[in-house]
From TrEMBL:
Domain of life of the organism encoding this protein: Eukaryota
Keywords for the protein's UniProt record, in alphabetical order: Developmental protein, Differentiation, Nucleus, Spermatogenesis
Entries under Pfam families matching the protein: BACK, BTB
Biased amino acid composition, Gly residues: 21-30
Region Disordered, residue ranges: 1-63
GO cellular component labels: nuclear matrix
SMART domains, alphabetized: BACK, BTB
Origin species: Calidris pygmaea
Stated name of the protein: BTB domain-containing protein
Cross-referenced InterPro entries: BACK, BTB/POZ_dom, Gcl-like, SKP1/BTB/POZ_sf
Length: 503
């Protein structure tokens, strides 16, 4: 500002005045020059003095920035309670507030505008029926009416959400929801999920469910197992989007650990010790009961039946070692297992004798309900080749990761296989392949999917199923697949089985 005033007000010798004076002739314009010694010419004292005063005014140092209106209102009206026209009492605390600000709340707006007795009262006692609401939450909620923004701590967001919902503060409710979405992790996810259900934040509930589907198996923890309710675990286990590591048997093992922690919540130990402790605890129960009933049929275990019904047992009993463990554990009712053994036997006969070459079309409902779920963790970049264990009706599928490609190969004769191999000229497989990388809180950094597809492979044929952009590759990389090796059994065929039994 100082340099600008110099350019405007200081006149160079020989130039006309620029203060707007109309000097009649040229001489009058030049007669007002300043002398070098600083003495003023006759008749110039008034005009020069005015110019100097204006110059000093323009060069006045800037004053400190005034406090913003929002901060002033918050400090003066809310914190100090000046000019308050109503007192709110709740949880043993008092707030001196203002009706004009409280009317931003749907709760108070209805109270003051209707025929309620409170509309004419100066002191109002609030009933707080929600145990999640405390004094600090009310302080922040009331304060939000007097300011533009609120800083929400993740540790306080549930209490604040409860207060915002009671007071019908839509903007604050939305802000709480955004804070919850941004801070989902192993410690907060179950609390957020339950609160989102209680207070109707469906988008938060969906985000929590997605986080759990991605992290339940990939990042197991004792604390998370303890917090997961039966209903929530049922949703996770039944979903085709569950990120499984390594095979379905690992889902069974995770459920066994989770059920133990639900029954013995006081147990404190490491994740490495958990399975051995769970096995020992269930073995002792079998010995104490000395009966043939499975644990899930007992009074203590019956609450967990709805969860275990969603295990895809057909992909557990397809592996001999896994089938023996399940039989030994005696957690699952024998009728369930007998039914699955029968189902798999007929599926094998259809594949062998009916020349079932696999799924002919994408049936999303069938894939989501009955596909095999399996996965793999690639700790660092390199070359990998693997197969998932179990009998897959003679389809020996080899999966290769190399040079940013993921390749499926139908192995028949090129490489040794521990089980029988189908020699049919062509076999179909329905699949969906998903890749994901996670940050330290379990949030997905990058992901890719093929969507559901059907692949036809001849003997020893291989096919690239995904070509990865190196910029998207962040290790460790998690790979999850859904597979369906056989076509669904037709209802007409299954209903005809008893009639054809003699044949």
């Amino acid at each position: 500002m100082g340099s600008l005033s110099s350019r405007v007000l200081r006149r160079r010798p020989g130039l006309p005045r620029c203060d707007g004076a109309a000097g009649g002739d040229g001489g009058g314009g030049r007669g007002g020059k300043r002398k070098r010694g600083g003495a003023e010419g006759p008749g110039d004292s008034d005009s020069d003095g005015e110019a100097e005063r204006e110059e000093r005014l323009l060069n006045t140092p800037r004053r400190k920035k005034l406090k913003s209106t929002s901060k002033y209102i918050y400090q003066t009206l809310f914190l100090n309670g000046e000019n308050s026209d109503i007192k709110i009492c709740a949880l043993g605390e008092e707030w001196n507030l203002h009706k004009i600000y409280l009317c931003q709340s749907g709760y108070f707006s209805s109270m003051f505008s209707g025929s309620w007795k409170e509309s004419s009262m100066n002191v109002i006692e609030l009933e707080i029926p929600d145990q999640n609401i405390d004094i600090e939450a009310l302080q922040v909620a009331f304060g939000s009416l007097y300011r533009d923004d609120v800083l929400i701590k993740p540790s306080r967001v549930v209490a604040l959400l409860a207060a915002a919902c009671m007071l019908q503060l839509d903007g604050l409710i939305q802000q709480c929801g955004e804070t919850m979405k941004e801070t989902i992790n192993a410690k907060t996810v179950c609390g957020y999920y339950n609160s989102a259900g209680t207070y109707g934040l469906d988008s938060v509930k969906k985000k929590c469910l997605e986080w759990l589907l991605n992290n339940l198996m990939t990042h197991q923890s004792v604390e998370l197992f303890k917090e997961l309710s039966i209903n929530l675990m049922k949703q996770l286990i039944s979903s085709s989007n569950l990120f499984v590591m390594q095979v379905e048997m690992d889902v069974y093992t995770a459920l066994k650990k989770w059920m133990f922690l639900q029954l013995v919540p006081s147990w404190n130990g490491s994740l490495k010790q958990l399975l051995a402790e769970a096995d020992a605890w269930f073995a002792k129960r079998r010995k104490d009961f000395e009966s043939d009933i499975a644990f899930l049929e007992s009074e203590q275990g019956s609450a967990f039946l709805p969860v275990f019904t969603h295990l895809r047992l057909q992909y557990i009993i397809s592996d001999l070692a896994s089938a023996r463990i399940v039989e030994k554990d005696s957690l699952i009712p024998s009728e369930w297992l007998s039914s699955v053994y029968k189902q798999q036997w007929f599926a094998m006969l259809r594949a062998e004798q009916d020349n079932d070459i696999g799924p002919q079309e994408i049936n999303k409902e069938e894939l989501e309900a009955n596909s095999m779920r399996c996965g793999r963790k690639l700790a660092k970049d390199g070359d990998y080749c693997w197969r998932w264990t179990g009998f897959n009706f003679g389809f020996d599928l080899l999966v290769t990761y190399t040079n940013r490609y993921i390749i499926f190969k139908r192995n028949t004769l090129n490489q040794p296989c521990s089980g029988s191999v189908s020699l049919q000229p062509r076999r179909n497989i329905a699949f969906r392949l998903r890749l994901a990388s996670f940050d330290s809180s379990g949030k997905i950094i990058c992901s890719r999917t093929t969507g559901y597809r059907i692949l036809t492979l001849e003997k020893d044929q291989e096919e690239v199923v995904m070509n990865l952009d190196s910029r998207l590759l962040i290790f460790p990389l998690y790979i999850c697949c859904n597979f369906l090796y056989t076509s669904p059994e037709k209802k007409a065929d299954s209903e005809a089985l008893p009639d054809n039994s003699e044949t």
